[in-house]
Amino acid sequence: MDPIAIVATSVTLLGVIVKTLVVVVRYLDEARNTAKHLDDISTELQVLTVVLGSLSSSLSVTTSTVVLDYLVQEIAVSVRGCTAIIKQIHEHVQKYQRSRIISKIGWATFGQTKMNRLCEKLEAYKAVLSISMQAIST
User: Fold this and answer.
1) Secondary-structure percent of the chain, ordered helix, strand, coil, rounded to 5
2) CB neighbours (10 Å) of residue 89?
3) Is the dihedral of CA 129, 132, 137, 138 positive or negative?
4) 3 state SS of 117
5) Both 75 and 123 in a single domain?
6) Do 120 and 59 share a structural domain?
């Protein structure tokens, strides 16, 4: 084998090793932060559950014009959507809080990606709620 080919192959192999190490370090970092991520999500769920409960009870009392009725319907749909997403998030969090080592690996591999998708959906519902509440309050 040609010495230049050996050097080129070695450099390529070194590049692959470095990329692999970067991926492994990121993975381990995510696995280490699993408990913090799950605690943050649980806290947000608790706060959101209280807010949604208050909204649900307030919506049953509110009656008025067509626009207000439409906004109340939108809020009700958003509250139901938030509630469904919250249940999914809660189930997902429970799944990864069971076992320490397996949950860290599972969270870093699969759980965090799914949680990010669920949180994006929840954020969309929260945005609709915020806009609707602002429209009602004016």
Assistant:
1) 90, 0, 10
2) 21
3) positive
4) helix
5) yes
6) yes
Count how many domains the chain has: 2
7: containing domain: 1-32
How many Cβ atoms sit within 10 Å of the Cβ of residue 32?
Answer: 11
The alpha carbon of 5 is separated from its chain's Cα centroid by a whole number of angstroms, namely: 47
The sign of the CA dihedral 98, 102, 108, 112 is: negative
Per-residue model confidence as pLDDT tens digits over 92-109: 877 777 666 666 677 777
Which token pair is 85?
Answer: 């997403």
Indicate the helix (H) or strand (E) that contains 21.
Answer: helix 3-32
The distance of Cα 105 from the centroid of its chain, to the nearest Å, equals 17
Neighbours of 129 (CB within 10 A): 21
- What the block records as the tokens of 14 is 């070194």
**pLDDT tens-digit readout, 116-130:** 888 888 888 888 888
Distance CA 126, CA 79 (A): 9
